[in-house]
Amino acid sequence: MTKRFEGKRGLITGVANRRSIAWAIAKRLSEEGAQLAFTYQGERIEKNVRDLADSVSSPLVTACDVRVDEDVERVVREAGEAFDGQLDILVHSVAFAAAEDLEGRFTDTPRDRFWLALDVSAYSLVALARASEPLMDAAGGGSILTMTYLGGERAVPHYNVMGVAKSALDSSVQYLAWELGQKNIRVNAISAGPVRTLAARSIAGFPTMEAIVEERSPLHRPIEADDVGGGAAYLLSEDARNVTGTTLYVDGGYHAMGM
Ligand code: NAD
Ligand code: 0WE
Fold first, then answer.
1. Is residue 259 part of a domain?
2. In a domain, 3, yes or no
3. Which tens digits make up the pLDDT trace of 153-177?
4. 130, 207, 224, 234: least CB-packed within 10 angstroms?
């Protein structure tokens, strides 16, 4: 197969461990020739991410808390230094809500934790896109991908404030696609079905939810992070050169069902 990402340079956010969706995407891009820089959040996962990044000969692994403007600007500057002032690909695979807000009632979400979820899970895409814009412009264009979930469009029990954040994220994809299209920068999302990652496994009732999706989706099988990697590679590649502002569902078809 031809290597679709030969000579392409990407910045990957959201790897926590080998099960992360961001890692499945990175593996796929790297296999097809991309050079990748990685960000991680917090010293606790630094070694994980460094080991994974080393396995794909990454030139840059750097800390980034997406709530901090200076971090976002610094990591993109560092990526620019590693990649001769150019960037082709940005993967945004970051989300967070306080655990109690995914367990309790949405109605009871306090103001500060509502903003926390939107800050980490939605605004961060806007901040990263803005910082990346000059490097992508220098490359003659670029492709940005974020990870969303059906709970931003429909009420999924317990997804709660994360659903509101994904709704803001989905809308941000459309507005960014409109503005950055002018610079040949595409912005898309993948809406994944439940994948057993670190973020997912700590959620009470996740196995039940996976079972429901498997039973009711047209394809009746679990969604793997590598399935998302395949869709991501398509959206990030030249094969999708006229695709922007869209959401690709990698969910076994679950979103198409009414019952
Ligand atoms: P994961 O835990 O592997 O990844 C989540 C990442 O977010 C982690 O790397 C974590 O470090 C990072 N993060 C959280 N707060 C941060 C902050 N303040 N600054 C920087 N990074 C921060 O889990 P995942 O399932 O791979 O999640 C990746 C994305 O996929 C998320 O946007 C999630 O909403 C989305 N998603 C997941 C599923 C699923 O079922 N796993 C389904 C659809 C969409
Ligand atoms: O986006 C997600 C999960 C994101 C997430 C996970 C956690 C767990 C640990 C955000 N914040 C946190 N905070 C923590 O403290 N998914 C799409 C996976 C997911 O999470 C759910 C789901 C699905 C699917 C929560 C409730 C219901 C369904």
1. no
2. no
3. 999 999 999 999 999 999 999 999 9
4. 207
